[in-house]
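Bug: token stream looks shifted between consecutive jobs. Job 1:
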Amino acid sequence: METGTTGETSRPEWVGLPGGLLTLRRLLLVWWMGLFTLVTALVLGLVVGPMWAAVGGFWLLVLAWGWWLLGRNWLSWRYAERADDLLITRGVMWHAETVVPYGRMQLVEVTSGPLERRFKLASLQLHTAAAATDAKIPGLAPEEAERLRDRLTELGEARSAGL
């Protein structure tokens, strides 16, 4: 059985997330900010006066800011498969990089909620012995999530067999 990193002298090959997650999150943002704009404008317009209905436009500013922020956040999500571990990086302002050794994984599961299924997305959840080191890759194509689950499970079994 091979141990240690072999054949890796170059940088990891990072893989970004497909665009479906960004589309889903932006649609939810538009839905909620549109609802907030409508309710705020309607309530203030009826209770305080028609001029106050313009305050509902505040939510449109939040929509523009959130649209940009979601795009940056989506670009920050990446993962890379290496010989001994899986790297996951995310975050714009608070950048985080998680390293999950294959031999430490205890459970790899693919989940997909109703909205994710509607947009043909799935999430890969990695569980390790330490609860603080669990990792998740959201917004994968279901086929890619299943391929990663099978590959990580296979590598995890091979790496933990030597313990």
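Job 2, same session, no restart:
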Amino acid sequence: MLTPSRLALARARRGLTVVELASKAGTSPASIGDYEHGRRHPRPATTAKLTEALGFPAGFLEADDVPELEVVTRPAPKRQRDAAISAARLAIGFDAWLTRAFTFPEPDVPTWEHHDPETAAEMVRARWGIPHRPAPNMVHLLEAHGVRVFSLPQDCAAAGPFSCRHNGTPYVFLDPTATPDQARFDTARELGHLTLTRTGDAQTFATAFLLPRAGVLAAVPRGALTEQVVAHSTTWHVAPLTLAHRLRDLGLLTRPQYTAVCAQLARRTTGMARRETSQVLTKVFRTLRAQGTTPHAIARELLLDVEELNGLVFGLVLTALPGEGDGNREGDRDQPATPHLTLVRR
């Protein structure tokens, strides 16, 4: 029997209106509305047509409910926003599957109830044992503290990154089209959204988390020249412009110095070479491969196709190979260090 919420989820994931799905499946918009609200159930043949029209494997529309999510995304067209949230709901379903098979770190993301994002960032840094030094790989760091980090499929990029808590577990969903520097900053900003319980300034939180006041004041000289800003941005794993803004806010660059540095940075291309990706998911797929479980088998069990699954896991289904993603290798000197993380197969 068709599960009404699954039909609504699948339609939203494909970015279809009721009218468009009805046309593709050869039924009426009123019938689609009835099916989605559980007022009546389609015949098996109609369910098969709906499944085919939506491009999901057989059985997807008849599986259990997928949890609803309340999230705030970047302003985007409703279709793309709904598609992104639907992808996040599928990712949480995948995470539930993973949790039944593996033991992950317990969530350890404190909350901050005051209007002071800079202090909140310092609090999280102190709790996680990185008070003043450059933060390691942000995706690995969040995963080591129980945050589940997924990528969004390419067609969901307009919604931007977002985060939420579901049944006590914090989740972060990242924009697949962001540059390596921007993706790292986005990860820190979503950590801010998870930490700041009031409507706080997650942008300020992210800057303070990646560039802690005490650490930057101790490391970067007053009046730094452009080349020095670039060199220190590599140390702190941020874009040079992000560091320049921070130096201005901390009083290490005067307004004329800041303007001159930004003008010179605008004429050059610098930044991280590789995007930070998931350590947990890399280990999961490697472990499953070693045990003979293929990505196709995982996708079949989840009632997804491999392309859909791959879009949620940083492309690791197709690219995870022995030796990748375990941290810094020779030649990866621009990559932040990897926090220790242990994954236990149940």
